[in-house]
Amino acid sequence: MLDHISIQCADLEASSAFYDAVLGTIGGRRVLDFGNSIGYGIEFPCFWLGPLETGEGFRESHIAFTAPTREAVVAFRDAAVLAGAESLHEPRVWPEYHPGYFGAFVRDPDGNNIEAVHHTWETTS
What we know:
Blueprint: E1 5-9, H1 12-23, E2 29-33, E3 38-41, E4 45-51, E5 62-66, H2 70-82, E6 86-93, E7 101-107, E8 113-119
Parallel strand pairs: 1-4, 5-8
Antiparallel strand pairs: 2-3, 3-4, 6-7, 7-8
Helix pairs in contact: 1-2
């Protein structure tokens, strides 16, 4: 349903360094770089960073990235902390969301709540 999402950053250089470090742990990479806007994705850009140009003040966003494995969730969180992020929630199962929801939450350089999540869905035959 979503094609892409974009966030405005107070310090584009700091934010791009953060996302360069963490998105590789879940298979993402910098796909396009126009200098004042940077697109991340796997093949095509679906997550964009740009400079803070509109609005007044900060509005926290929550963005969850899909991780291919639980180990990738842990690697994402570890890379984020090494990049200077605050760890909001350690990697764990969140049964209140669903029994196979494994996620970790960090705060990016602009204060956004950024999550890596791996879903294990039980199927019935």
